[in-house]
Amino acid sequence: MIEMTRRAFVGALPLVATGSLLQLEVSPAKSAQEAPIGFVWRVPIAHRETVQRNLLFEGSIKSAKGEKGVPLVFIFAGAVLLPYLADAVLALRREIVYGGLVIDTRGPEIEIKNDKRLDGGVIMVVKPSGTEFYERDQFPDPSELVAALTKK
């Protein structure tokens, strides 16, 4: 994206008149952390409040009902900045006693769900390039999870 400030434009006029090259100030493109991404997160009903408290996003929350009409999970879907998503994932991981989290980045939006087959606190990141497993203490803060999600 190119942005031309008034200062750059005014400074460029004499350059055009004298036949010199026109230079523009170019702002860097937004990083993956600063651009909203789509996501779908299936959250067990017991952890809905934690996610809702820690996740700033634009979208919707639906409850998925089981056979008897009882809500089993809540589905958070919409757009979020990656640092907010990482922060909410790590907040939820601190509360999970059973199973781990699976973060699938292969589709058009990030999908997150619990998997009881994983050890508690484990985060499994699935990417087109392969699958990586992270233990409970590998992400002391959200920026490290963001880096793991954005690296190829």
Which features characterize this protein?
alpha/beta; seven-stranded mixed β-sheet; 152 residues; 28% helix; 2 domains; single chain
Note down, in words, how this protein is organized.
Mean pLDDT is 77; it is low at 1-29. The protein folds into 2 domains: 1-30, no CATH class; 37-150, no CATH class. It starts with 5 loop residues before the first helix and ends with a helix. The protein has helices at 6-17, 48-54, 82-95, 142-150, and strands at residues 37-44, 58-65, 71-80, 100-104, 110-115, 123-127, 130-134. Strand 6 (123-127) and strand 7 (130-134) form a beta hairpin. The chain has 152 residues and is of the alpha/beta class. A 7-stranded mixed sheet has the order 2-3-1-5-4-6-7, with helices on one face.
Secondary structure elements and their pairing?
Elements: H1 6-17, E1 37-44, H2 48-54, E2 58-65, E3 71-80, H3 82-95, E4 100-104, E5 110-115, E6 123-127, E7 130-134, H4 142-150
Parallel strand pairs: 1-5, 4-6
Antiparallel strand pairs: 1-3, 2-3, 4-5, 6-7
Helix pairs in contact: 2-3, 3-4
